[in-house]
Amino acid sequence: MSLVISAKDVMALRQRTGMGMMECKAALNEASGDVEQAVEILRKAAKGKMDERTDRAAAEGALALARSADGRSAVLIELNTETDFVARNEAFIAAAEKVARHALAAPDGEIAIDDTIGQTIDEIRITTKENASFARGVKVSASASGQIGSYVHHNRKVGALVVVEGARLDDESLSGLAQHVVAAVPAPQAIDESGLPADKVAAKRDEFTEEAKASGKPAEIAEKMSAGKLRKWVDENTLLGQPYVKDMTGKTTVRQVLKGATVTKFVRYQVGVR
Question: pLDDT tens across 114-134, in order?
Answer without folding.
Answer: 999 998 998 898 888 888 999
